[in-house]
Amino acid sequence: MPPRLLLRTFGGLSLSVFDGGKPALVNQRKRLVLMAALAADTNGGVPRERLFTLFWPESDSERARNALNQMVFAVRRDLGDDAIESDTVTLRTNPGVVDSDVRVFRVVAAGDDATSGLGRNERDQAS
């Protein structure tokens, strides 16, 4: 089953539903930036400590942890519980739910066909 959401980071930041292009997380820039940071990671997840520093550099660890937990809760509420995967140390997007132009770019740059599993409309949205 193809992902249901497409995160675009090149040429502007947006998140949309694959079938129909309906935007998601409209007017939620910080949440979109979180999704972009998670999608851009190539190490299997972004450490929570790094996210604390990126989003709340002047907050103490406790406040930053609470703010991140609230943001992740809000994203999961809006996009589905399965949009973000997490463990005690890292967060990552679920590639079965959220695809991104960053992933497509990496696959194409590596010489693979990133859109072979997508239908025509989804290929058009991904490019």
Kindly name the structural category.
alpha+beta
Helix content: 40-55%
* Main sheet record: 4 strands, mixed
How far is the first residue's CA from the last residue's CA?
A: 19 Å
SS element count, helices: 5
- H/E element sequence: EEEHEHHEEEHH
Strand content: 15-25%
| Unreliable segments of 5+ consecutive residues | 117-123
Shape: globular
Return the average pLDDT rounded to an integer.
86
- Count of DSSP strands: 7
Describe this structure in words.
The protein is an alpha+beta fold and 127 residues long. The protein has five helices and seven strands. A four-stranded mixed beta sheet has the order 3-2-1-7. About 6% of the residues have low confidence.
Please write out the topology.
Layout: E1 5-8, E2 14-17, E3 23-24, H1 29-40, E4 46-47, H2 48-55, H3 61-79, E5 84-86, E6 90-93, E7 98-100, H4 101-109, H5 120-126
Parallel strand pairs: 1-7
Antiparallel strand pairs: 1-2, 2-3, 4-6, 5-6
Helix pairs in contact: 2-3
Q: What's the gist of this structure?
A:
With 127 residues, this protein is α+β, with helices and mostly antiparallel strands.
Top keywords for this entry?
single chain; globular; alpha+beta; 43% helix
